[in-house]
Design a protein that fits this description.
alpha+beta, 2 domains, two-stranded antiparallel ribbon, two-stranded parallel ribbon, 45% helix
Length: 148
Amino acid sequence: MSSLQHGLLKVASSLIPGVGLPNGLQTRYLSHDGEVVLAYQNDPLVHTRLSARLLTSMLQAMDYCHAHAAELSIPLLMMVAEDDHLVDPAGSRRFLEKLDASRFKEYFYAGFYHEIFNELDATQVFDDLRTWLELQQFTPLELIQKAA
């Protein structure tokens, strides 16, 4: 997002927070599986617009997460599509650089688009998730207590 767009968004968020802005999502980059893309495009529950306030809040939340990344105290799994055209994988790398390496596990999937679990051959993605989950030895209550 350019500085001009960011400035205009801040003004719109203050003056007309509910105005709908096109999300600009290029659906062809969701998955290499054409059926997944077609299903998304034909889903009547998919929203193609975001309010100015929601977009502003999302950007603020991302800034907050980056600023407070070092405070993360629970295990984190990052599963990132290397060929993601919707979200820049470099942002995930920048976030991970701020963390204690013992706190996270990262997987970057070369050639995958945004929806890694909906790619043509997502077997490795599911295997990686299963492996990571099996290594976690916390009950949900323990995770909540650790985060507090």
